[in-house]
Design a protein that fits this description.
Layout (H helix, E strand, L loop, with lengths): L4 H5 L9 H8 L4 E3 L4 E7 L5 E9 L6 E11 L5
Antiparallel strand pairs: 1-2, 2-3, 3-4
Length: 80
């Protein structure tokens, strides 16, 4: 499974999966925060300066996905 439109629209299908299962399904994240308990995947949007993000929150003890959030239209400023 790649980060497709379906995954972005229904990320709840990932709840209950382990960190290793997420890596096997989606690959390693673009960013990992809070000692690996928040995985952030950045995907392309319709233009070069806008991106979407899939954020997965993991339970710190069991390292399973306990919540998901999709963020659309993150603006990436153009480098000067």
């Amino acid at each position: 499974m790649k980060i497709t439109k379906q995954v972005m629209e229904d990320p709840h299908q990932l709840i209950g999966k382990t960190k290793e299962e997420i890596y096997a399904l989606l690959g390693t994240p673009d960013y990992s925060e809070f000692e690996g308990t928040q995985l952030i995947y950045i995907t392309r949007s319709w233009s070069w300066f806008r991106r979407n993000a899939l954020i997965l929150e993991l339970d710190p003890d069991e390292m399973i996905v306990e919540s998901t959030e999709t963020v659309y239209g993150i603006e990436i400023p153009k480098a000067e």
